[in-house]
Amino acid sequence: MERLQKVIARAGIASRRKAEQLILQGKVKVNGKIVTELGVKVGPRDKVEVDGIPVEKEEPVYYLFYKPRGVISSVKDDKGRKVVTDFFKDIDKRIYPVGRLDYDTSGILLLTNDGDFANLLMHPRYEIEKVYIAKVKKIPTREQLKQLEKGIMLEDGMTAPAKVKLLSHDKQKQTAIIEIRIHEGRNRQVRRMFEAIGCNVMKLKRERYAFLDLKGLNPGEYRELTPHEVKQLRALALSGGGK
């Protein structure tokens, strides 16, 4: 027997927190009866419905995807642009991205149908360290790099301390390649941090997500995470070890 909200989350319909809201709103039925209590447990033979649609208990799946530039981190786009799930046509489960990468940013993106897992990795308290490589216009000074490390004041507040390394620079073209490690996940955060010190990002790639990298993958390709990798990610998030 499992808690109702966990069954809904595992089916890929919503995160556990969102599933709790659906229950409280009276949108969930168990064996034809509306359930509004969060403590209810269900078994394999119980029929669960959300908004009148039967919940199919899918086996959880976990993928590491090399997102190309020019792709939306979503399952659909009202403007008809390419989305990440367009690369998973052979997958018959309802998967969705864990967090997001900007349209113009390439690199590691995880996809799953496990709402519990996705919610854990995206929770602000458990944010995993992510490593980005940025090509920027203008060579930042040592003082500007220190500003990034200490934290930058953006319109939505101060960023957490980051780890920053100048990898190379071209004096003639006035460009630089910089590695930056952050554990937050705000919208367009890395681009906004560089803009705040006067360096516009020309190209951005997320190279690592915790201990995961893109080894063996080309843009648009994916692989399944191993059970051990999934277990490691859970443990890393719960321990705060990704920071």
From TrEMBL:
Keyword set includes Isomerase: yes
A Pfam family of this chain: S4
GO cellular component, one term: cytosol
Keywords assigned by UniProt, alphabetized: Isomerase, RNA-binding
Annotated protein name in UniProt: Pseudouridine synthase
Domain RNA-binding S4: 2-65
Family the UniProt entry places it in: Belongs to the pseudouridine synthase RsuA family.
Enzyme Commission number(s) of this protein: 5.4.99.-
Molecular function GO terms recorded: RNA binding; rRNA pseudouridine synthase activity
Keyword Isomerase: yes
